Amino acid sequence: MASMAKVKAVEKELQDELEQMKKLQSDMRKTVGSRQQLESQLRENQIVRDELELLQPSNTVYKLIGPALVKQDLTEAKQTVDKRLEYITKEIERCEGVIKDIEGKSEQKRQKLMKLQASLQAQQGALQKHQRPV
Q1: pTM beyond 0.70
Q2: Minimal CA–CA distance to 10: which of 128, 95, 124, 98?
Q3: Could you tell me where the beta strands, DSSP code E, fall in the chain?
Q4: Residues 94-130, buried b or exposed e (16+ Cβ, 10 A)?
Q5: CA angle in degrees (0–180, nearest 5) for 65-69-71
Q6: Is residue 80 within 8 Å of residue 45, measured between CB atoms?
Q7: How many angstroms separate the CA atoms of 65 and 123, rounded?
Q8: Are 123 and 21 in contact (CB under 8 A)?
Q9: Segment-wise mean pLDDT, segments of 10 residues, the chain, 134 residues
């Protein structure tokens, strides 16, 4: 026999799981946004690297530091861009790992929510049958 207390307990558990699911969705949006920003930075830096490859060693390269342009060695500029590309690539891979983790947790939550909803409906149905006069 399903009691009202059991129904209330399942409802509370369902609410808690829904809140956790909302947090996962929020985390997913933030992580996807970060990944998109990183991909944009990656493309920009790839363009810079491609432009630096077109230069001759005799060309002058300048680096913007605050409001001033400072002369920089071409080799040093290429190394800096390559390090930046490496860092951004690793960050994108990290974000993708976080996204996969969140997707896995979200799927587990979805399945648990479906079970809780089915349980709640069954208990409510049993409670209604029990309360009907014969």
Answers
A1: yes
A2: 124
A3: 61-65, 68-72
A4: ebeebbeebeebbeebeeebeebeebbeebeeebeee
A5: 105
A6: no
A7: 67
A8: no
A9: 75 92 96 97 97 93 94 95 98 97 95 90 79 62
